[in-house]
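Batch manifest, entry 17 of 40.
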Amino acid sequence: MNAVPKLYVLDGSSYIYRAYYGVRDVATSGGMPTNAVFGFTRMLLTLLQENRPDYLAVVFDPPREETFRRELYPAYKAHREAMPDDLVTQLPYIRKVLQALNIPALEVPGFEADDVLATLARRSAAEGIEVTVVTGDKDLLQIVGDGISLLDTMKEQRSGPQEVLDRFGVPPELVPDVLGLAGDVSDNIPGVPGIGEKTAAELVRRFGSLEGVLEWKNLVNGKKRRENLHAHADQARLSKTLATVRYDVPVDLDMASLQRRTPNLPELMPLLRKLEFAALELAFTPPPPGVVEIYCDGSGRDAGPGGYGVILRYGESEKELSGFEPAATSQRMELTAAIRGLEALQKRTRVRVFSDSQYLVRGMGEWLAGWKRTGRLEEPDALKNQDLWQQLAALSAHHQVAWEWVRGHDGHPFNERCDRLAKRAAEAGIRAEEENVRAAQQVEVQELEKSIIPKSAAPAGPAPVRVIDETAYEADADGQLLLC
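Output type: structure tokens
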């Protein structure tokens, strides 16, 4: 478990729609659409692998006709179209996937997922748990605070209080006030006519709250705006109520029930096979007994910065490695990735190394024996990247290694993960180098400034009175002085 326990709660409805529209034209050989199930499961798998939460739950909306907001305002979300039929048929399979993964799926009658998410987040943060709410819904930015952040996995953006301030212009607790004035088209929340989000944020900042704006509306610029604030004051209050999440949802759960558990493979694997998700089936299939699987990938440009990513799998255990090289070709990064993976092995073992680099796989599987036989592996400069090939040869001699090629960028779960690790390592390395350069330049500037600052002069007496010679200048015809 992490030093500070981590809870991830997912906005299930948001995830499903993103999966449905983000992945198209996926179906079984029998014609059953599975794009939403596939996209949902793949995004969930990526989230688990990259963040490794201690606690986890997925929260769903009940039918929107059955929520308290619909009772307050019948037009709430009424403009939204019904769920597509080919998505409706996939919902039971999404539930089955979650059940097989041993991930709790929560739904509370009368309350939207946002309210359940907010209640769980605040309650868990109060217990010292670090909470991440996974959603793309901007309305939920209001719950951000101590121990609670939002994660938009599509944009790879994590939002804390500063990001909320940048987005809305107000702190998280005033987001409902802004929405009360501006409304929310996506939820059919009316707000006040003629007031957009930017103006609403300016007014809330100026007057402190929605009620402050309504109380001091006579000080608001614009006659029509003042009239609208007067005429639609109750509508603004209702809009704020609709936009405000609840923290009092009756969720009868303890943290133990949300603790992350290993998947139920006897239930999961037949389900994945039925859905014909070969790549996802591979992701959940453990290595054969006694075998370590190494997946590796490199990312780089010709003579440019590069990164590598490695995943080691043994039984149910996994380990990720990544790193940066300031000057390396793509080929060198592919070889470096394999080297780092083999270096991580503590004892002699059977190994299967997977890579999308034919240069690496063919080099170790086909060419190495010839290089040894002809002496090219040892003869100086006889072989490109000779130093790395020598390291690989020495490392692989300590183990029983099989080299296997996988098609890159083709949905292979571990190859894609390694690619992301490599690219992120390269980006992080580039940023670190740029920061080092800037820091070095700053030191140079400071040293230069020190060297050119004049020595302190001796204390001077009273300054001499400057004598100014008065000079009479001629003037032209219109009275302008001729100074030269």
